[in-house]
Amino acid sequence: MNATFHRIWNSDLVWSWRHSPVAIIATVMTLLLFIGALGSTWLAPFDPFDLASINLMDALKPPAWSEDGEMPYFLGTDSQGRDLFSALLYGTRTSLLIGLASVLLAMLVGIVLGLIAGYAGGRLDAFIMRVADVQLSFPAILIALLIDGVARAVFPLSMHETIAFPVLIGAIALAGWPQYARTVRGSTLVEKNREYVQAAKVIGVSAPRIMFSHVLPNVLGPVLILATVHLATAIITEATLSFLGVGVPPTSPSLGTLIRIGNDFLFSGEWWITIFPGLMLVLLVLSVNLLGDWLRDALNPKLN
């Protein structure tokens, strides 16, 4: 056990992490935000979405260190009397879950299509890549808005709140799969000419098994790096959609929804309602981005 730990601790990746202050700070910040968000049910002092515990008399209270602030509400309250610190933890959890789910779905679609395009080649490869090229020519937020708008037009009004999460996850994922497909296709074009793939073909291994059992493990490195960076983009996209009012329902607000709600009070003196959600979003995206940038540089052989 000690030998395994010693080997991992002295590996090139961990050595690079230990000697990068930015990577250490980004890792600590990411872990704290993840723990706070995923453990919001136990860590939040109040349940901001429990109507029975909300008192309108506590609305618009400033942070506790202000002159009119009260200690139970460390970061103040919003216009409905909800504790802002608790709302931030719950909102970060919503943003993170949507971001993680959309990244996983985009990875799944992109990896499968990238493997097929790179391994099969020919017209199928050309068709998949042209679709990816056309989609990449449009901003991700525009594609997500289009998909969300189509879904809201197709489904009745009574189902909008029910389908909000699946539609939002699907919209962000469909906007991000081309990056994974292009990355996997490029690596597959190299791997399919290797000796182990040729040997598998000779002994009669089927094409799907070669792709997913032999080629896929050797192309996952760049995909994992891309997923780390894409998580920050997915969180920003979700926050933008929620800020525009087409994201998650008001009953389960995310950071984007909290920023939109606080924006109405920004110029009336209640600055904390929008500033703190904005800072939380910046910290979350910045820490994930910095971690992804370090991981990309650490795994790039040209920089080592």
Automatic annotation (TrEMBL):
Pfam families to which the protein is assigned, alphabetical: BPD_transp_1
UniProt-listed InterPro entries? BP-dependent_transpt_permease, MetI-like, MetI-like_sf
This protein's superkingdom?
Bacteria
**Domain ABC transmembrane type-1: residue ranges:** 92-292
Q: Which organism is it from?
A: Alcaligenes endophyticus
Main subcellular location: membrane
Q: Does the keyword Acetylation apply?
A: no
Q: Where in the cell is it found?
A: Cell membrane
What keyword terms does UniProt attach to this protein?
Cell membrane, Membrane, Transmembrane, Transmembrane helix, Transport
The residues that cross the membrane are: 21-43, 96-120, 127-147, 153-177, 219-244, 271-292
> Does the UniProt entry include the keyword Membrane?
yes
Q: Which family does it belong to?
A: Belongs to the binding-protein-dependent transport system permease family.
Could you identify this protein by its name? ABC transporter permease
Membrane topology (UniProt): Multi-pass membrane protein
